## 1
Amino acid sequence: MTVPHPGGQLLLSAVDLRKSYGSTPALNGATLHIRPGEIVAVMGASGSGKSTLLHCLAGIIRPDGGEVRYRDRQLGAMSDSERSALRRSDFGFVFQFGQLVPELTCLENVALPLRLNGSRRRDAESRAMEWLTRLQVADVAGKRPGEVSGGQGQRVAVARALATEPRVVFADEPTGALDSLNGEQVMRLLTEAARHTGAAVVLVTHEARVAAYADREVLVRDGHVRETLLADR
Ligand SMILES: Nc1ncnc2c1ncn2[C@@H]1O[C@H](COP(=O)(O)OP(=O)(O)OP(=O)(O)O)[C@@H](O)[C@H]1O
């Protein structure tokens, strides 16, 4: 299949994605193009297919049909280990809950992906500390995730997602468990950090207030990407 080119350089594209869970359709011909450094909010009602689209884009689940292309590579043509390596080197993830390893300190959590990518402990921890400082949570470096607030934990999770300087950050309801003040702060710091490193962000949210931090909003409805609102912010 030829990927229709919407103009400009593309980083990540989903074209005509289809995915069902048993007899439940989740994606029904979803197409979405992401450019380098672009922050895109994926909105839509509960059950519309937003998370499934994000998981397909990130190579976490395989669509039943259609294709996902990252730079010049088709994710469906890669082996599981190639896709895992790509996720570690080029993608970062922020979820709503439970993403930090409870036994590790916040510093060790942020250093972990750097260690997995081959950095030595001392280098990984010093980079992790820089990221905790940028996310304004340096003071919790030595604490375990269970000892910090929800907002602090999410900022640690953002530091961890960005520490490897990924090209794409996938964020699935990253503020869903936070009050509005903490949610705003996490979104401001996440988008500032992504703009600093040039990472694109695919942000799943159902909150307009959160989507307002994006360059562009798309709406998922019944497994299609129905509408693109170019919000020239
Ligand atoms: N693992 C699964 N097994 C079975 N059905 C699933 C699974 N994951 C998603 N679904 C179904 O697929 C459809 C799309 O789900 P998805 O989680 O992608 O939507 P969503 O827009 O992210 O929803 P929410 O906003 O509630 O998180 C829904 O009907 C959902 O019930």
## 2
Amino acid sequence: MNSWPPVPTEPPARHPDAPAPDTELPEHYAYCFGCGSEVEHGLHLRATAGDDLTVRSRFLVTETHQGAPGLAHGGLLACAFDEALGTAVGHLLRRPAVTGRLETDFVRPVPVGTVLHIDAHIDGVAGRKVYVSAEGRMNSVVGDIAVRARALFVLVELKHFIDHGRREDLRKVAEDPGLLGRSVDLNP
Ligand SMILES: CCCCCCCC(=O)SCCNC(=O)CCNC(=O)[C@H](O)C(C)(C)COP(=O)(O)OP(=O)(O)OC[C@H]1O[C@@H](n2cnc3c(N)ncnc32)[C@H](O)[C@@H]1OP(=O)(O)O
């Protein structure tokens, strides 16, 4: 395996206002496919702040997440890891960021009905680049590893979302700010 992080990094610092360990984290956007409560067949990931630079997420694989009969779709598993890794960056650093690169190793098939326990860890920061990794275990925090993932998130300004987001969705959020879970500082 290639070395990780792939470039020299600084040790990341947990933001002083990051949620305390064991805090249940709110969804970051009600219409997010990964965590949003308004997306009927979304992934509905739930996450808890861990110690230091970690976040622990749970994802129940349902029959709407199948790729082969009775088995989770790999792309949806990648989505769950994108969400879990992004949640760690958002809540622990409290800075807006987007996924620049995501790699996944699918180690075991994941049957419908499995709860994946995803432990994400911020590994290093280099300028705007944040390197994060995670392991997903089957049905328990000490279960067999089913998926491993590593990602680069890139810190962005809020302007990124305003410039690129669809107008009608931005308007909806402006009218009902409660749709955003406020994981990050909007005026850092
Ligand atoms: C709580 C929140 C949970 C959220 C979970 C879900 C997260 C998501 O799914 S986000 C949506 C998916 N991602 C996107 O839409 C991002 C689309 N891409 C972009 O907007 C841009 O390419 C973006 C912002 C990543 C980078 O663009 P830009 O701001 O111009 O910066 P740029 O200079 O190109 O890159 C910054 C650094 O990252 C590096 N980088 C960017 N992309 C990559 C990549 N794919 N691989 C390796 N390095 C990369 C660049 O080389 C550069 O490095 P350096 O600083 O050493 O020169």
